[in-house]
Amino acid sequence: MSETLLEIRGLTITARSGGKTSTLVEDASLTLNRGEVLGLIGESGAGKSTLGLAAMGFARDGCRLARGSVVFDGQDLVKMPERRRRRLRGARVAYVAQSAAASFNPARTLLEQTIEAPLRHGLMTRAEAEREAIALYTRLRLPDPETIGRRYPHQVSGGQLQRAMTAMAMITRPDLIVFDEPTTALDVTTQVEVLAAIRDAVAELDTAAIYITHDLAVVAQMADRIMVMRHGKVVEEGETAALMSNPQADYTKSLWSVREFRAQTKPPSSAAPHVEARGIVATYGDAPVLHGVDLSIQPGRTLAVIGESGSGKSTLARVISGLLPAREGECRMHGEALPPSYRQRSREDLRRVQMIFQMADTALNPKIKVRDALGRALTRLMGLRGRAREERLHQLMREIDMDPAIHLDRYPGELSGGQKQRIAIARALAAEPEFLICDEVTSALDQVVAEEILRLLDRLQRERGLTMMFITHDIATVRALADDVVVMKDGHVVAAGQKDDVLDRPTDPYVRTLMESAPEMDPAWLDRLLASRAA
Amino acid sequence: MSGGLARMIAVRIGLGALTLLLISGLIFGAMGLLPGDVAEAILGQNRTPETVAALRTQLGLDQPAWSRYLDWIGGMLTGDFGKSLASGRPVADLIGGRLVNTLSLAAYAALISVPLSIALGILAALYRGRLADRGISIGALTAISMPDFFVAYVMIFLFAVTWGLLPSLAAVTPDAGLGEWLYRATLPALALTLATSAHMLRMTRASIVNVLASPYVEMAKLKGLTPSRVVVRHALPNALAPIINVVAVNLAFLIVGVVVVETVFVYPGLGQLLVDSVAARDVPVVQAACLIFAAAYVSLNLLADILAILTNPRLRTAR
Amino acid sequence: MTRLAVLRSAPPTAWFGLLVLTVVALLALFAPFAAPYGEREVVAGPFEVWSESHWLGTDNLGRDMLSRLIWGARNTIGMALLTTMIAFVVGAATGLLAGTVGGWADRLLAWIVDVIMAMPSLILALLLISIFGASTAMLIGIIAAIEATRVFRLSRAVAMNITVMEYLDAARLRGESLPSILWREVLPNASAPLVAEFGLRFCFVFLFVSSLSFLGLGIQPPTADWGSMVRDNATLITYGDVTPLLPAAAIALVTVSVNLVVDWVLHRSSGLKD
């Protein structure tokens, strides 16, 4: 059982663009036994996908396997001629991509694409391949396995596509499958089903797998062993249970500790609400998005709004900020109605409510320096000019832990993702708001950076007594930061209340599913969940 | 074909017809923009009160604009294009044979340029970044930058004057046989080909490069398929819609390019007639010719639209 | 990066383009000094061959070809540049405004422009010339109006791409006025595509004017102009003389050069974030 299937030794992968050569993966080594699942974890840009593709002897356009060896079942894929590599791909090694929607050819049916590899490699007849495909669709729990293959990719859902792609990879019973973030694009409730389907299928067919992800909790469920990567290098490697409980490298420890942050929960209060929404109905064009949403936030508290994609949570933020005037209902501040559109709001109203957006990349004008981006807010909303403005600028930069001397004269493009989001926060703080709306502010960031942002927001809230509405799809973030919680689904509020009541004692069946589906670090979590659902 | 698709195409056709109607209004109404009295302006320096009055009646200026427009558009639809101011002959007689000449020249050029530019475009995309691609791309950029008449005269200089292979003037006559016609029309067709192929080639290359960069092409490679199968089964079906669109759009360009090329080769087509009539300010002929060119242009663009819908798998197979 | 460093990083093709454009621009600016003879001066018999006193011979009326080529640079390029600038100011201003503001006025404008653009521009120009005549001012007006619709469409699309960005939402929530949003937020981000579009539009206008002149419907004699010079002397080609091809080649050279420079600018703005 411990026969070695894949052995990568001293592999260095380089990329050329614009005459410059950069190193994507440096001196990486790994060993994979038959039937074993290796989790490959790291942040964006760590070189996980590049290494995963290299395990198939494949390098993207412009990339090159510069040094080292990739020995698959005794043969070095690096030295092998392309024609022989092609005979292995799709037959003995297969790939499952992150975005199934983009990786299926829109012009061909699922079945045609599923059976293409075995037919082309001459491994099965068409009838055999079709039978096998239907068997795999059934095994991966796709609805209507007999007929779903006749559909085109745009006719099935994201979770189903991801499972169909797994079937496509498995149909030749390969020795190795590379899974490249197969559930990252999915909502959590869908993710559980896909994870379970993939794990069972891999176990039953005794396939070895490399499972690439940035999500620790996911990798803990899927992998026998875990390898941590950073900046193209392997940082640490070990058995899942051992590595989870006892990481050695500093970087691994910092990754592991991310989910330990907990803001101090404020005691329940009976103060009059600071911000309220009453019966909000909103539409985009003619498409209804919100159907009568109510919520209220007490002063100085953090309300987390949770929901999956399409639940209307970001629309709610746009309604409260005035960017999207509500069709019906109203927003109130200190009991007084706010005009529905930002156009009708006074400068004072605009100043009091500030919003921080998901993507700092698009929330900061790339052509405006940090100094002018923050300065404009100070001038417009606070009336500051000249020396007073300059002093306040420096003060703001220090509050977000950035160096005014260095960073004030940078363009957003010259800052890292985390720094950009800090600047976006500073821009909101410049107005000295009472109420801060944070729309998925950490979801585009790597976990370590995201946690720094959460800590910053928590500190600023406590120092300034801000009232906050925090919109997210990530339950771990809610647990870290929220005092109160609102759960949204399809434009309705399905649960609301204090954090512990809503999250830990859910009464609504959807909220219960949502809570269960959020992966936990415990490697036994998925088994427990599946067992409890089966019961 | 699903009902939604049929409805979508019907809407496009309706919009095309509406556009054409508006253009006809524009062409007709443009006359009203003429400063001062139309008849006086057209006759210019040589006018006498009698000729002005006669022209006014002939143009129907004594009637309200909308009734003149209805007459005009009704005439267009029934093949009555009015009378030429310059020669007094019916415009339909002037246009008839020339329209056939122009369409056959355009068709001849399309037969050469469409396969040529698609093949070169695909070649450039497949070998992108390599020598063949750079050569083709620089050649295309140069061809785009050259005025149509320059291309035409260089061809005359080479093929007619220096090598004596083909005639420099393309004075085809209606009674000429196919061989004779081909002999005379080849040089104009080649000039037109060069003028339009570059655009078509560049757009074909761009759309294929776009498809080749998509994740599903990478997926096909990772399934161990041969490069030719990756291109034929996975890239081409998805590049087809943009390429068809490119072809139709460029055929529309070709229709317009005809105007200059015909003048260089003294080819008796609609373009040359239009240029002569503009110089003579023969308004009825100009209007009729403009409407025909515009109609061809709009229909080809409409065709491009409809083909794009039909070749899009997302639309062809609704949810 | 300093301007000098930017220039030094330019590829040879862009260098070639810049060099050609500089030389042509200098010749055009200093035509009275650079040209050996006057623009309309009849200096010898018609169609004389290349000689010491007339390097490129004389044209159909006995005017010096080289001198007319130099004067033609001034006239043809000058007119194309002026026309492009007018089209740009009108088209870009309305396009950016319409794309930023949106609403029914934007949709109406876009629809009108679509209808006008459904007609080939050469045909539309010929129609308008037949009505208004081919005086230089009219030509500039007609071509600028037609080109402005193209510029409008592009600038509107550019502005619409920018208005969905969240930094525009942030500016709106700051209560910024429309002019301030256009000036501070939209324009800096629209400048790269607009500069490239200016180059391409100039090429198009330049070829367009030349084609009209060649057809005898553009710049009118006796003004020297590259397009009409080809037309006037075309008969020489049938005698194996390449002289009439020179003005046409000059047109091609200028257009290629602009295209090369534009390609470089586009490449820079897409590949580099500053």
What does this structure look like?
Chain A is an alpha/beta fold and 535 residues long. Chain A is 39% helix and 25% strand. Chain A has 22 helices and 20 strands. In chain A, the strands form four sheets. A six-stranded mixed sheet of chain A has the order 6-7-8-3-9-10, with helices on both faces. The longest helix of chain A is centred in the middle third of the chain and has 18 residues, at 188-205. The mean pLDDT of chain B is 84. Chain B is globular. Chain C is an all-alpha fold and 274 residues long. Chain C starts with a helix and ends with a helix. Chain C has one domain: MetI-like fold, CATH 1.10.3720. The model of chain C has no long low-confidence stretch (mean pLDDT 87). Helix content of chain C is 73%, strand content 0%. Chains B and C meet through α1, α6, α7, α10 and α11 of B and α5, α6, α9 and α11 of C. Chain A: This is Peptide/nickel transport system ATP-binding protein. Chain A: It is found in: Cell inner membrane. Chain A: It comes from Albimonas pacifica.
Helix and strand content put the structural class of chain A at alpha/beta
Named at the architecture level, the CATH assignment of the largest domain in chain A is: 3-Layer(aba) Sandwich
The whole-number mean of residue pLDDT values of chain B reads: 84
Largest sheet of chain B: none
Instruction: Specify the structural class of chain B.
Output: mainly alpha
Helix content of chain A: 25-40%
Order of helices and strands of chain B: HHHHHHHHHHHHH
Number of strand segments of chain A = 20
